[in-house]
């Protein structure tokens, strides 16, 4: 008897092989659990949200981008996510696509542990759409115009610094293996609840970056006459104007990954995945979606 009675299998919408594998997974385990198919776009629809209320597990088929979107939907309902990787690196994925049909059975049998990850909550002043939640990062950055912007940072009501450059990025421990890593930031233990503030192409900045306590409240105020934007997890975007302020703190939501190995396996796989990323960069390839 499966511990997961209803499973959503969400695939990358632009990868035909991802859709095919999702259908194969559903067919393979039809006798063990009820499943329904979606893609990373339809998961955000109201109809999908209604179905997620009765869903026990989300299996994503794609890259880290697909997992991000799947986790945004899952975190609202506390649903664990099992990532099947069809990208090139897959920091957040658990299973490679070549082995998915055989290995998923172990997880459906009720095995595995929950890897709980901290998320961020970002609220833009005056935004009628309400707060946004980030698994990876929140960025305040310049728009299309190639001009320096200024971002004033305050931590718990105390002025920290004014960053001049292309913007700033605030990352969770999960997001520390993403964009901030390319900026020279550290890799943070994924179980840590701290978050990282890092300038992007900083000009004469006082700080190269700071690690903030999980209980801290960060306020970023934009100072610019040019276009600028707030971007959450690389795909949720809001425009910003001069003196726009975003408040960032730890979210009440959590990301729940379904894992097989012990917590130390993160470090075991890190050097392997970083080696894959370095090789991909040298070959001029992008990251998986």
Tell me the quaternary state: single chain
Output the number of helix runs: 6
Weakly predicted, low-confidence segments = none
What proportion of the residues form beta strands (DSSP E)?
35-45%
Report the CATH architecture of the largest domain. Answer: Sandwich
Q: Kindly state the number of beta strands.
A: 17
The CATH H-level superfamily of the largest domain is Probable inorganic polyphosphate/atp-NAD kinase, domain 2
What is the count of distinct domains? 2
Word description of this protein:
This protein has helices at residues 16-28, 46-52, 64-75, 100-108, 179-182, 265-282; strands at 6-11, 34-39, 57-62, 81-85, 95-96, 113-124, 132-134, 137-142, 149-155, 158-165, 167-171, 195-200, 210-212, 218-223, 228-232, 236-240, 245-259. The protein is α+β, with helices and mostly antiparallel strands and 289 residues long. A hairpin with a 2-residue loop joins strand 9 (149-155) and strand 10. It folds into 2 domains: 6-112 and 260-282, Probable inorganic polyphosphate/atp-NAD kinase, domain 1 (Rossmann fold); 120-252, Sandwich (Tumour Suppressor Smad4). It has a 6-stranded antiparallel beta sheet with strand order 7-6-17-14-9-10, with helices on one face.
């Amino acid at each position: 008897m499966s511990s997961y009675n209803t499973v959503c299998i969400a695939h990358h919408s632009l990868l035909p092989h991802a859709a095919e594998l999702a259908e194969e997974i559903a067919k393979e385990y039809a006798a063990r659990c009820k499943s329904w198919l979606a893609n990373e776009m339809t998961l955000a629809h109201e109809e999908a949200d209604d179905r997620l209320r009765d869903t026990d597990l989300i299996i994503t088929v794609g890259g880290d981008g697909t997992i991000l979107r799947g986790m945004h939907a899952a975190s609202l309902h506390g649903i664990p996510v099992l990532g099947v990787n069809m990208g090139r690196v897959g920091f957040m994925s658990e299973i490679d696509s070549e082995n998915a049909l055989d290995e998923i059975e172990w997880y459906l049998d009720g095995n595995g542990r929950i890897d709980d990850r901290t998320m961020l909550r970002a609220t833009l002043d005056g935004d009628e759409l309400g707060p946004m939640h980030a698994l990876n990062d929140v960025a305040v950055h310049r728009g299309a115009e190639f001009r320096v912007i200024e971002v004033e940072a305050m931590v718990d009501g105390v002025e920290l610094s004014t960053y001049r450059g292309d913007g700033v990025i605030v990352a969770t421990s999960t997001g520390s293996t993403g964009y901030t890593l390319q900026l020279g930031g550290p890799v943070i233990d994924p179980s840590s609840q701290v978050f990282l503030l890092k300038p992007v192409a900083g000009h004469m900045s006082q700080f190269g970056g700071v690690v903030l306590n999980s209980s801290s409240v960060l306020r970023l105020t934009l100072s610019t006459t040019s276009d600028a934007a707030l971007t959450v997890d690389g795909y949720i975007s809001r425009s910003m104007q001069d003196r726009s302020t975003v408040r960032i703190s730890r979210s009440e939501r959590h990301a729940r990954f379904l894992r097989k190995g012990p917590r130390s396996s993160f470090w075991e796989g890190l050097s392997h995945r970083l080696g894959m990323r370095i090789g991909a960069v040298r070959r001029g390839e992008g990251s998986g979606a």
